[in-house]
DNA sequence: ATAGGGTTAG
């Protein structure tokens, strides 16, 4: 008896002493944890227990103590106690495995189960649910299957509790077929079994199956409870089905759990996901008591529905309430709002808050930070967070790749993409849709085909977004024919597919084809949107279809009620510029309903260059240079105009301005792909193995087209001649590539060349003539459009 | 004496 009181005292003592070391909050739904290696001290002197107490009695008392520790979440001491006990009793093992699972020590729970097996202690129907749950939490399908096999072997595969646990486990690892198989083989199903299956469909994102399962459950006469409601609300969120959501809300109001905070939170979440901020807010305002999760759901609702300021107000109110504190998920939900308002300083302070609160490292939070910095155009910070992550998954990789693509770093994005594959990650549809624009940008047909092949293998072609991107990619890589074929084979073309194919023909200068496609699109009852008209109008402007361009510009407004955006205005301005009426063009800019952007001034600059109006070019250039836009091209264009006019002081002035801003002239180069290899030429390149032959061909070509390779122009004075010769267009990369193409590409096939900057007018002229005298089609993709040179003409009709 | 299903996240 004395010993008993000693034990009681001891228990109380340790529990009180340990209270700060122990998890006193809810003991469920932890993130996975690991036990510290023997952090326990020896101040708990348990040896005193053994005197005068029978073994059975002793074990009983120890077990009670063990349960106390487990229920307090003090697994460290629970394990210590366990090691000192007789381990023949299944019950003790079960208590400890439950404790580990409940407290988030999933790997340890599974390990302890194996130790139990090896110790020869039989696992019973109580053991398996905990172990199976731990496997599910670990997302370890192989481990889960092993335990399932054992369940089957010991004949417990008809136990309702175990089967229910198996359904949940299979759902968590994403194996819905296995979950369904367990469910269908059950001889007896209770409400929990049905709820588990309903929730399983919701977990894998199959809202319809989830709702259908509820119907089926009702048809066999089983009523619902709040767990059913929670899953059904999740299904509504997945389906964005406000109608069903409201119906369930109605049922909730009539039910006994209408004031349950979990159900209320779920309703707020559902309204948020269905885009109904007002409904969510009304609920939130009247909710009797809120948990941190309720606040998080409301903040997430605002962020999701692009109400960034409200989400900031919400977190301020949350902190002012003093009842709950922001947690990791609060920040995860809040961060997109920073990107939405372009607010770097709040973003950084939230990041700092996370660091101070020791929320990091945390996979999801870090990934959100990467995503947000990417959207705020802070690539350096995005990369910094990404590099510091000690755990990365596919979603984090997708975030950093998207950040690079969105910020125009296509080459680097592709490098990361190959890093991801070398890291044994398997890209998903999201990775592919992020990376495809980068492939379009680098416009390498060889690499483009590789990624296309990968998509076919992975069966991503069912995804419209991806297929549309692939169509665009082929067009940008110069292979309009494949683009067309893929488009033709799509069986569910959406408006974006049509916009893409119209644009594809547009950038290749086949404006008439674009307009035919627009008509076909209308015949197919696809309603055009603003982007459709960007495709149509830019096709018209690239091909110089003046009359048609204006017709569609007016049609867009008056028949389809679409107000012109800056891109639409830009295309119309290109058409005006082409005609050379620069005054009219200037007037058009003044009369636009939108403030002009760099795109608009760029258009005016091109027109001024084409018609040799330096004064207007300077006006346009000054506007571009005063914006934060990347304006390297603008400097170069202006500098070339000055050079052409012999204004060398101004050329030097521009050069000075560029070096002041740290801008370097982009080295122009021309790529040609021969036999799955990309050959790159720069101006005056002599690095190719066949250099002598290439220059021989070039010399012949130039003689044919009436230029001489080694004779300078005579209309400049000697000093200018030297300057001019330094950058003589006669040996520009494009001509070297054409010469090489003529001796490498089989006769009859077009010579396709990609250029990283716009083609100069001398080379444009030369290419036309070469196409004529050699009777070859030459296709040159520059940084904006494709030029198809054939029979001495170019598809751009000499305006670009 | 120990069981199973639940709300917010990139």
TrEMBL record:
Domain DYW as annotated: residue spans: 732-800
Any one GO molecular function term: RNA binding
PPR repeat residue intervals: 89-123, 159-193, 393-427, 494-528, 631-665
GO biological process annotation, one example: RNA modification
Residues that span the membrane, as ranges: none
UniProt keyword list: Repeat
PANTHER family associated with the record: PENTATRICOPEPTIDE REPEAT-CONTAINING PROTEIN (PTHR47926:SF452)
Family classification: Belongs to the PPR family. PCMP-H subfamily.
NCBIfam families assigned: PPR (TIGR00756)
UniProt name for this protein: Pentatricopeptide repeat-containing protein
Provenance organism: Heracleum sosnowskyi
Taxonomic lineage from the root: Eukaryota, Viridiplantae, Streptophyta, Embryophyta, Tracheophyta
